[in-house]
Amino acid sequence: MSTEGQERLHAAARRFRAMAPPVDDWSLRLVDDSAETLSVRRGVVEPIRLSRDSGVMVTVIEAGGVGYGATTDLSAAGLRVATERARAWARRTADLQLVDPAQLPRVTAHGTYRSPLAKPWHSLDTGVKLERLLDLALRMKIHDAIIDWSAGLAYHDRETLLVSASGGEIRQRQHVLMPWLRAVANRGSETQIRSFGPDLGGQGGLERLDILELDQQPERLAGEALALLDAPECPTGTMDLLLMPGQMTLQIHESIGHPLELDRILGDERNYAGTSFVTADMFGTYRYGSDLLNVTFDPGVPGELASYAYDDAGTRAERDWLIRDGILLRGLGGAASQARSGLPGVACARASSWNRPPIDRMANLNLEPGDSSLEELVGRIERGVLMDTNRSWSIDDSRNKFQFGCEMAWRIEDGERRGLVRNPGYRGISSGFWRSLAGVGNAESFRVMGVGTCGKGEPNQMIAVGHASPPCLFRNVAVFGGGGS
Fold it and tell me: How far apart are CA 305 and CA 301, in angstroms?
């Protein structure tokens, strides 16, 4: 964001303070979002996508109710209209509140946050970035059987300013970069895909391309896509399963992250995306997984997709254990859900934009490393499969029964990889799957990744969440190949 854009937010905050309404409490969340996406496919530069979105959300507590009003008009007149709308909704909903607004903490903090940034997005001309993408994509065209090859970069710059009647002022700025490469191979009726990113997106600038060793990926991806054409189908049966971080990301997301959201447990998502198999009485006693399962909410990891210092409700974000030694300790719920449920939560009230109120969302949800190397995990498997990179997913509306497909896999026998297999998949039940966890990779195999397009809420809020994990070994899992049952 330009200096002019930053001053625009602060000027609006000053205008609002000067005209603040006589209510029990108020807060103003100002957001300025800009994004740019560059992509090339089959040697052709695709249309550049640019967006800019700025606005404010006024929240008021009055007469025992909470109301919201949002606008893109940052003038005094625009702010006044949004404020009156928020006050009207507060009065109208006073008798319908699920939690007494007096129980909600006031925003009193003063603080800042900024993504680590070594090489800003705009330090390179658009033409230079496109030339790099064209080169990366072309290097995947290593054989006539490669029928599609593409590369892209998505950049997102978001600044938020949260001010309150209690004198709080929190300013945060996030720079996010998401690269991707994709190679598609075909022979006859067989098509295979190998991809890199965008689950490797993170906070930072163009330096992330070097951190991710993007230049070393094109030929590898294309070669693997070709090799999959000739690979046998993944075996079917009950066997050991070793998941790499690229697949653990979605496994954590769907069968730990979503089930632990307090508003989902309370029933708020049942009409849109279902409920949860987790119930309120499980916290503190329920065995979610084996003793090896340790999961943290950690918004302080440098460069992870959802790192921040405060959530969008103004709560200071700290590292907390969600699951420790397999036992469920706390849920993913912000201050409002904690007050409503009486359950422990974390600072995860997040909003996708200026025109959405904060709701319970995952942020950085990480499976902590153990003490085994990848080679040691492979060596402990008598018969099994190693899988990497998600290709498909399905999970029931209580986030319990699931089925996932991956891009590639290796058959393992007697502690050694025996060859590539194609079209791998596996299924399970969350409440039992995590208890079969028998090995966790060490810190050297730990990878910081994420999901950039997590949708939730009505109206929908699309948001980025971070996940980190080492490889993990599970015993006696239902594995299948070829899309079979």
Answer: 9
Cα gap 481→467, rounded to integer Å: 27
User: Residue 485: is its pLDDT beyond 90?
Assistant: no
pLDDT band at 483; cut points 50, 70, 90: low
Specify the DSSP class assigned to residue 398: T
Amino acid in the structure at residue 448: V
What is the CATH number assigned to the segment(s) 3-230? 3.30.2290.10
Question: Buried b / exposed e across 200-228, counting CB within 10 Å, b at 16+?
Answer: bbbbbbbbbbeebebeebbeebbbbbbbb
* Contact yes or no for 61/90 (Cβ under 8 A): yes
> Would the pLDDT of 336 be above 50?
yes
Q: Please tell me the distance from the alpha carbon of residue 58 to that of residue 74, in angstroms, as a whole number.
A: 11
Residue extents of the structural domains in the chain: 3-230, 237-480
Q: Give this prediction's pTM.
A: 0.95
Task: Label the pairing between strands 49-62 and 44-45.
Answer: unpaired
Q: Which residues pair with 352 in a beta bridge?
A: none
User: How do residues 201-253 score in pLDDT, each as one tens digit?
Assistant: 999 999 999 999 999 999 999 999 999 999 999 999 999 999 999 999 999 99
d(CA 302, CA 308): 9
**Eight-class DSSP state of 255:** I
> Rounded to whole angstroms, how far apart are CA atoms 328 and 216?
40
**Contact residues for 460 (Cβ-Cβ < 8 A; gap 6+):** none
